[in-house]
Amino acid sequence: MRFTFRRQSCLAAVLAAALLAACSGTGPASGAPGSEAAQAGVALLRPTAGPVIAGYDGNRNRGLDFGGNRGDPVLAAAAGRVLYAGPGPRGTGNLVILQHAETLLTTYAHNERLLVRVGDSVARGQRIADLGSSEADRVKLHFEVRVASKTVDPTPYLRGTATAPAAAGAAPATRPTSTRTGSGFFVSATQVVTNAHVVNGCAGVEIAGRGPARLGPMDATADLALIDIAPQAEWLPLSTEPLRLGESLVVVGFPLPGLLAQGHQVTTGSVTALAGVRGDSRVFQMSAPVQSGNSGGPVLDAGGRVVGVVVSRLNAMRAAAVLGDIPQNVNFALSAQTLRSFLDAQKVTWRPAGNRLPPMSVPDVAEVAVRSTVMVRCLPTPG
User: Fold this and answer.
1) Which CATH number applies to 7-157?
2) How far apart are CA 318 and CA 305, in angstroms?
3) What stretch of H or E contains 216?
């Protein structure tokens, strides 16, 4: 099947993904290399070695589709910065968006495994993902080039050849250069869950106040990961009932570490939509404020049950630049169903709370959640 998004749908998909920001504490990102003046003559590297199986036509296919074998390297077409890395809007699968200059973007869809995180700087030819078939009918890479928010034919830009920068099977080139943080919470006596993008590429992980921990299974598509830790007596119950629009929510986590007050932070809001960008049922939209460092933290209902996991927020500044308006409190969480499916696949014995529990005050919900919510630290590679 060829890439079938219409022009407007394709634009919405790429913009939506680009405007989302993961909520892990990665610190401020440096500006992307390059300049607008150099864009017209930029030479992009071929992003994978496979043949072109569907060309750009400016209508049904607004990029190039490359074939290949599952696990083949997907390479950065030019030096730049990771604007987005994670599950994309429907039809794109695991998506990477790179920014190379102020108005020059490249996108890479249908990947198997992502090897970079939001905010990472990447070199030209760096391996950023493995070729896959996520949300596609075959193994392929869908590659797009966008200049000044418009999709252009990538062919004239591809003047290099695809050569992997490291031997096959080598470790991802991008590793954290400083400690980064997110949030997590106990789902069993010995296991903490967090977002995969919080711990992807880490040399090791530790739980603040508890010391080193062991990274367990990870699912990049669900954006969830488990961490094995010394046992504790309490863990949070998971809701098994569907969410309702307008339902009150409490979010607990560790936003903006080093800037805000030390310790747990609590925000409140409500369910504002039962799906995410372009109807993605894996997530829901909420008004509870979240910041960098909240990723992986629990979202609870008034009864103290986990109904979601913080995953991303709409980047208000980028949205304002594109849309001419500043969106407020547009944040996203993975649904309880997504979480339960991941835990079931990993054979985790989680604690169900099927019936709606009597509502509690926000301080009471926070008190329960704080006991099981932890800060997750992603440790950089030594040297």
Assistant:
1) 2.70.70.10
2) 33
3) strand 211-219
180-379 has CATH 2.40.10.120 classification: yes
State the Cα–Cα distance between residues 296 and 183, nearest whole angstrom. Answer: 5
Which residue type does 224 have?
L
For residue range 216-236, list pLDDT tens digits in order.
999 888 889 999 998 888 899
Reported as a single tens digit per residue, the pLDDT across 20-54 is 556 666 443 333 333 332 333 467 899 999 999 99
Distance CA 138, CA 68 (A): 10
Question: How far apart are alpha carbons 277 and 286 in whole angstroms?
Answer: 12
Question: Which residues are within 8 A (CB) of 134 and not within 5 positions of it... i.e. 6 or more apart?
Answer: 93, 94, 110, 111, 112, 221
Residue type for 177, please?
Answer: T
Measured distance CA(116)–CA(20) in Å, rounded: 16
Relative to beta strand 352-353, strand 238-239 is parallel
| Closest alpha carbon to 84 in 183, 3, 16, 172 | 16
Residues 223, 224, 227, 228: is their CA dihedral positive or negative? negative
Do residues 311 and 334 lie in contact, with contact meaning Cβ atoms separated by under 8 Å?
yes
Q: Where are the domains of the chain?
A: 7-157, 180-379
What six digits make up the tokens of 119?
């905010």
Are residues 213 and 206 in contact, defined by beta-carbon separation less than 8 angstroms?
yes
Q: Is the whole-model pTM more than 0.70?
A: no
